[in-house]
């Protein structure tokens, strides 16, 4: 997602290609550092995206910051070690785990069957939900009502959602822009009427236009669950992280940190389950 830059088709193609090559060739993973080895080293290597605000990005002081960074620091704190944030582009998240260049991967790692052939996942850290972000000028109550030539939908150029909308809302016009900031700006300025996407990642940008009466249609089109990526067979680390995540969810840390960075509650919240 965002990083929605992460939705860019070329990135997904690169990631899918890597998965296909590794899975098809039977290449074995490099042995990952165990939970004990991580603790003894005094450092946990955490993969984060370098340009995916508010999930993670370089801030004004050129330090990495964002939701994933706060979560990573919290995990390191529970282990009694220091976090070592490693910049991983979208297509590098799985390869870096397989080759033991990182211990865990954050960065909106959606659970998919293809990835699960190569890496392990924790229980969900957060969700990504497709819904509609619009304003009070649009009276539609369902995303299907946007299938009308009077509406213009805005998307970042190259995201897979373009094809989704062409198939499901063929009558609507589509405006393509380059960034998440451009998306919200075009709606605020009236050049577009709505966004149909994983809207959690765009909510922070609506704060730039306080006079606009933003509205989210309370209908979730689909939801994906993002866990923390871990190397295959690193079972002790997965078990440990599942316990940590349960505590972070039930204690309110995840929800509070999400709202701190995304400026709105998670569209579909995680329901903590102690049985994992």
UniProtKB/TrEMBL annotation:
Primary localization class, coarse: other
Entry-linked InterPro entries: SBP_3_CS (IPR018313), Solute-binding_3/MltF_N (IPR001638)
PROSITE patterns: SBP_BACTERIAL_3
Signal peptide region: 1-28
Cell location: Cell envelope
Pfam families: SBP_bac_3
UniProt keyword S-adenosyl-L-methionine, yes or no: no
Family assignment from sequence similarity: Belongs to the bacterial solute-binding protein 3 family.
Protein name: Polar amino acid transport system substrate-binding protein
Organism of derivation: Labrys monachus
């Amino acid at each position: 997602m965002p990083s929605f830059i992460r939705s860019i088709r070329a990135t997904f193609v690169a990631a899918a290609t890597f998965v296909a090559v590794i899975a098809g060739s039977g290449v074995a993973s490099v042995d990952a550092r165990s939970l004990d080895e991580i603790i003894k080293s005094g450092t946990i290597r955490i993969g984060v995206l370098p340009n995916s605000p508010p999930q993670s990005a370089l801030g004004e002081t050129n330090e990495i910051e964002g939701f994933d960074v706060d979560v990573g620091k919290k995990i390191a704190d529970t282990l009694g070690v220091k976090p070592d944030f490693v910049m991983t582009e979208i297509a590098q998240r799985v390869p870096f785990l397989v080759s033991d260049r990182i211990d865990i991967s954050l960065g909106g790692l959606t659970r998919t069957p293809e990835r699960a052939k190569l890496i392990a996942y924790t229980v969900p850290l957060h969700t990504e939900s497709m819904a509609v972000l619009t304003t009070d000028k649009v009276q539609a109550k369902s995303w299907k009502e946007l299938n009308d030539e009077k509406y213009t939908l805005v998307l970042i150029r190259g995201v897979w959602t373009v094809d989704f909308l062409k198939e499901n809302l063929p009558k609507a016009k589509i405006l393509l822009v380059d960034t998440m900031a451009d998306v919200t700006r075009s709606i605020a300025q009236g050049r577009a009427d709505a966004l149909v996407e994983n809207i959690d990642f765009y909510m922070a940008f609506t704060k730039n236009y306080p006079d606009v009466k933003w509205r989210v249609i309370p209908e979730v089109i689909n939801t994906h669950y993002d866990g923390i990526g871990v190397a295959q067979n690193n079972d002790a680390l997965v078990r440990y992280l599942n316990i940590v995540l349960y505590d972070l969810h039930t204690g309110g840390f995840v929800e509070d940190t999400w709202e701190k960075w995304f400026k709105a509650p998670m569209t579909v919240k995680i329901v903590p389950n102690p049985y994992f």
